[in-house]
Amino acid sequence: MTRFTVDEANAFLTASFKGRGAQNQVILMEPGRAILRLEADETHLRPGGYISGPTQMSLADSVAYMAIMTITGLEPMTVTSNLSINFLRPCIGTAVVAEGKIMKIGQALAVIDVDIRIEGAEKASSHAVVTYALPRKQTDAGAGT
């Protein structure tokens, strides 16, 4: 069972990222895996109708964040520490889907594998590996010292 649901994820994105969060729609949250969908508009495009690299990078980052939340629950201070992306083929279309799967999650870091494709496409347009730093858990040991 996921610790953060689709409805909770969409509400969080909308509330936390004013004007941008509502553009990303979380469509799946299951343990260790999340899928986001973006309905692209002119702000996401380069000449020729290509979905821009920054848009794809933002999607990779966002879906990785959501995949982590399926395991940890809401942890707003989980932060990106590295994002590496390879653009494999042109990303041309109106809706883009990003799928993130946790490869490893530990006490300090989580590594997420992300594929981004035009909705309905078989092959990925880009592939990313995203590393997130997880917030340190507070312990009672040493409290008051």
- The shape, in one word, is globular
Provide the CATH superfamily.
Answer: Hotdog Thioesterase
Level-2 CATH architecture? Roll
Q: What's the SSE pattern?
A: HEEEEHEEEE
Average pLDDT, to the nearest integer? 90
Helix content: 10-25%
The CATH topology name reads Thiol Ester Dehydrase, Chain A
- Name the poorly predicted regions: none
Q: Count of DSSP helices?
A: 2
Helices and strands: which structural class? Answer: alpha+beta
Compute the number of strand runs.
8
Descriptive account of the structure:
Strand 3 and strand 4 (50-51) form a beta hairpin. The protein is of the alpha+beta class. The protein has helices at residues 6-16, 53-72, and strands at residues 24-30, 33-39, 45-46, 50-51, 79-87, 95-105, 109-118, 126-133. The chain has one domain (6-133): Thiol Ester Dehydrase, Chain A (Roll). The protein has a 6-stranded antiparallel β-sheet with strand order 1-2-6-7-8-5. A two-stranded antiparallel ribbon has the order 3-4.
Provide a quick synopsis of the model.
The chain has 145 residues and is α+β, with helices and mostly antiparallel strands.
